UniProtKB/TrEMBL annotation:
Keywords: Signal. The keyword Metal-binding does not apply. This is Starch-binding associating with outer membrane. The lineage of its organism: Bacteria, Pseudomonadati, Bacteroidota, Cytophagia, Cytophagales. Residues 1-24 form the signal peptide. SUPFAM superfamilies: TPR-like (SSF48452). Transmembrane segments: none annotated.
Length: 570
């Protein structure tokens, strides 16, 4: 879906919203003769503003630092906030999600006033998605009295996580009913950047979000979750094919419609290069010869070769096509990329009997000679991993894999923000069936989740071989591991699954002082300063843990309602 044609209109809508926020006594001065009154705004113009903002922000989480939490990726330098969960307040994130809600609220109000049932259902779905993400990330949050600043509600109370989840489930149920009979004649083609006005696909997306949130609350509200999931499964209306996934394309426009790491901040592209696959994910995929690994990651540029004839512990210099390059301990990523593309092969040899790590205090295990090598989670200093000769600020680890060069691009192909998928839906149903709920066969759903994920990443032709390697044996751990893999670039879902199930059994590294994976985002000082009583009330409801640290209850390691009393994840 092309987004660039909306940009002038989106800018116009934002100008309208800004103008509408001005005080009454300034209206005449600030009145724009070329602007559009929000009371007459066209819902078609509002939709892409909401959708692109939500898609972009959701991907930034799932491809960004949350991928570090669930050990999809690690950074091999400047890694405190990514690998070690050294997080501070989340004010910008909070403002972004509530900003989307304000625009979406106008979309909902205008759609309701005009009787645009399709747009109204879209707005309800997006409201549920946004509020659900806020509750997932922080816990309690303004909900019932949010977005009522024009009615004088400047310091809204925080609703409980339970109230928010119940509310978004009701919104999604209403949206699904509206989509079933919605009049799409009011939709202007091109303005829906997810489904281009296909109301059946929207209803499938909405019902899949219902499945997501029913399973999210299944430990706390099991009867509600069971009945809800069984009802949706019986309806048969949910995401079943990868072609129905809720995705947003990136077009690579200078306005910001680009993949998050497309634009390097320096000539050497270090900001992109230091994002590496995590050993946890690479090792799991390697063990089953997962075909997606070659889509997502690059082989190591210089592979270690075990050589018992070597007279020393390891080569000092690089070998090119088997010939030692005297004096050359390393090459730059750019040099290696060009020469490997030209057909040259680079290696270094080591004698496993004689080899001893040069930095034993920072080293995780023996040399890794595999074709694909990930960075172990939570290393004290990952720049040294696998005897990398370029450490510290110059890090260009030639002995660890990088992400696929596709992720250095800006548009097209695999670069999509994925809000929900058929693969995720299938794994939810597999988990429900594994619990004994009336949701079909667990193995059938498990296999379908794998199939839809392989379809998404263009390797469906290797399904038969792969599904044999990971054949279902009836365990929840298998379901959650495959769902964790399939959530690549949408790692928030893997995080929330881990939080309620402790699966996959992710092990934190040595570096995080807490020695545990985080559970939530931190309420910001801005909220404490401006809405202090309500924010402090929400903080008081969090459960402090042994890992909470100096922030006490307002810590990334404190438990929100969703996992209190469950014994999960630790």
């Amino acid at each position: 879906m092309k987004i660039f044609k909306y940009i002038p209109k989106i800018v116009l809508v934002l100008a309208v919203l800004l103008a509408s926020s001005c005080k009454e006594d300034l209206t005449e001065i600030n009145e724009n003769p070329n602007g559009v009154d929000p009371n007459t705004a066209n819902p078609n113009l509002l939709m892409p503003t909401v959708m692109t903002g939500v898609g972009t922000q959701y991907l930034k989480l799932g491809y960004g630092r949350i991928a570090g939490v669930v050990q999809h990726t690690q950074e091999d330098a400047w890694k405190d906030g990514f690998n070690d969960y050294n997080w501070t307040e989340e004010d910008d994130e909070w403002k972004a999600w509530y900003g989307f809600l304000r625009n979406n609220d106008l979309l909902y109000k205008r759609s309701t006033e005009l009787g645009f049932t399709f747009h109204q259902a879209v707005a309800l779905t997006m409201r549920a998605f946004i509020f659900g993400t806020i509750a997932d990330l922080w816990g309690d949050a303004p909900y019932t009295n949010a977005l009522k600043g024009d009615a004088g509600e400047m310091l809204p109370a925080f609703d409980s996580q339970e109230v928010i989840y119940k509310g978004i489930i009701e919104d999604l149920k209403q949206a699904s009913s509206l989509f079933a009979t919605a009049d799409v004649s009011t939709y202007a083609p091109g303005y829906d950047v997810y489904y281009n006005g296909d109301k059946l696909k929207w209803q499938k997306f909405t019902n899949s979000l219902l499945l997501r949130y029913y399973m999210r609350v299944s430990s706390k509200l099991p009867d509600v979750a069971k009945a809800g999931i069984e009802q949706i499964y019986t309806s048969g209306i949910y995401l079943k094919e990868a072609s129905d996934d809720a995705v947003m394309d990136y077009i690579g426009a200078a306005s910001g419609d680009s993949w998050p790491t497309a634009i390097a901040f320096d000539v050497s592209q270090s900001n992109w290069r230091r994002r590496r696959p995590a050993a946890t994910l690479v090792n799991s995929m390697s063990a089953s010869n997962d075909p997606r690994m070659k889509v997502w990651f690059q082989p190591v540029h210089i592979r270690w070769v075990s050589d018992a004839t070597l007279k020393t512990g390891m080569d000092e210099f690089v070998r090119k096509n088997g010939v030692i390059q005297s004096g050359v301990k390393s090459l730059t990523e750019q040099e290696l990329r060009e020469q490997i593309a030209a057909g040259h092969k680079f290696t270094r040899h080591f004698n496993p009997t004689l080899y001893k790590p040069t930095r034993a205090d920072l080293f995780n295990g023996p040399l890794n000679p595999n074709e694909y090598v990930g960075i172990p989670a939570g290393m004290i200093d990952p720049t040294y991993y696998n005897e990398n000769p370029t450490t510290g600020q110059q890090v260009q680890n030639q002995h660890a894999s990088q992400l696929s060069y596709d992720y250095q691009g800006s548009k097209g192909g695999l670069l999509k923000a994925r809000l929900a998928s058929a693969a995720e839906t299938a794994f939810i149903l597999a988990e429900a069936a594994q619990k004994g709920w009336a949701a079909g066969g667990a193995e059938v759903h498990y296999n379908n989740g794998i199939k839809q994920s392989l379809q998404t990443w263009g390797v469906a032709d290797q399904y038969d071989a792969y599904v044999k390697a990971v054949a279902y044996k009836g365990t929840l751990a298998q379901i959650l591991e495959q769902k964790w893999i399939a959530s690549w670039t949408a790692a928030t879902e893997a995080w929330f699954d881990y939080r309620r199930t402790a699966l996959p059994a992710l092990v934190p590294g040595l570096a995080p002082a807490s020695r545990a994976l985080p559970l939530r985002f931190i309420y910001s000082n801005n909220e404490l300063n401006n809405n202090g009583d309500n924010t402090r009330s929400a903080i008081d409801k969090l459960e402090e843990t042994n890992f909470s640290g100096p922030r006490k209850k307002n810590s990334q390691w404190s438990k929100p309602w969703l996992v209190q009393g469950t014994g999960k994840p630790w």
